[in-house]
Design a protein that fits this description.
This protein is 22% helix and 36% strand. With 107 residues, the chain is an alpha+beta fold. Strand 3 (42-47) and strand 4 (53-66) form a beta hairpin. The longest helix is centred in the C-terminal third of the chain and has 12 residues, at 82-93.
C-alpha cells in the first residue's frame, strides 16, 4: 500500500483496524481534544496501542453530536449496535455529553 502525503495523524484501537480497512467503519466519535480535524484533511492512521501505520483516510464531515442523540445510523457507520456504541464511548470517555463525529473515506 503506497503512502500519500498527509496533513495529520489519527489513531484507532487495533480492534477497529479490519472494519476501517474493509470500509465497514466510516465514522469515529471523538472528544473535544480531537475536534480540530477539518473536511478535506488527509490523515495517516495508526494503531493506538503500538503506533503501527495501517492506512490513510480523508475527512469528509465533522460535526458535534450529543451523546443522547446517537442513533442506529451512527451505530451502523461504526459497524456495531447502538448499545455497543454507547458502551464503547462510555468505556473510552466516561460520562461525556458532546462528541465530535468525524466521517472519513479510505484513501
Amino acid at each position: 500500500m503506497s503512502r500519500i502525503s498527509c496533513d495529520a495523524k489519527i489513531t484507532f484501537f487495533e480492534r477497529f483496524e479490519a472494519d476501517i480497512l474493509s470500509g465497514a467503519k466510516t465514522i469515529t466519535l471523538r472528544d473535544e481534544s480531537e475536534s480540530h480535524f477539518r473536511v478535506g484533511d488527509r490523515l495517516s492512521v495508526s494503531t493506538f496501542e503500538t503506533g503501527r501505520y495501517f492506512c490513510d483516510i480523508q475527512v469528509v464531515r465533522v460535526e458535534a453530536v450529543a451523546f443522547e442523540a446517537l442513533n442506529s445510523r451512527h451505530a451502523e457507520q461504526e459497524n456495531m449496535s447502538l448499545e455497543q456504541l454507547k458502551a464503547v464511548i462510555t468505556e473510552i470517555y466516561g460520562e461525556i455529553q458532546t462528541l465530535y463525529l468525524i466521517e472519513y473515506r479510505l484513501l
